[in-house]
Amino acid sequence: MRLVGAKSAATWVSRQAVRRGLLGSSRLWFGVFVARGAVKLARRAIGPRQPTVLLEEWIEPGTGIEVRNLSRDSG
Predict the structure, then answer these.
(1) I need a labelling partner for 17 at 20 to 30 A (CA). Which of 2, 26, 33, 65 fits?
(2) 37 in a structural domain
(3) Along the 75 residues of the chain, how does pLDDT read in single tens digits?
């Protein structure tokens, strides 16, 4: 389970690390850039995560199902 906004925060940190560390001259941000790359490589080496089962139900013969995707705004 992730914190809300965790993906956008990681994206911001990655962009800052590239901008200030790789393209700039900040040693701290370059260290962040290297660490972020190491984490990505480690995750790739470990392999893909197993999908999470959200719902599992038995369907009787003759029963139909409907799958819908609701936007966050439509509550």
Answers:
(1) 2
(2) yes
(3) 455 666 788 889 999 999 999 999 999 999 999 999 999 999 888 887 787 888 888 889 999 888 888 877 755
Q: Measured between alpha carbons, how far is residue 70 from residues 5, 40, 59, 67 in Å?
A: 20, 31, 23, 10
- Cα–Cα distance between 35 and 29 in angstroms, integer? 10
Range of the domain at 26: 11-45
State how far the alpha carbon of 13 is from the alpha carbons of 8, 18, 37, 38, in Å: 9, 9, 12, 14
SS3 40: helix
Per the structure, how many domains does the chain have? 1
Q: Note whether residue 63 is domain-resident.
A: no
Contact status, residue 33 vs residue 21, Cβ threshold 8 Å? yes
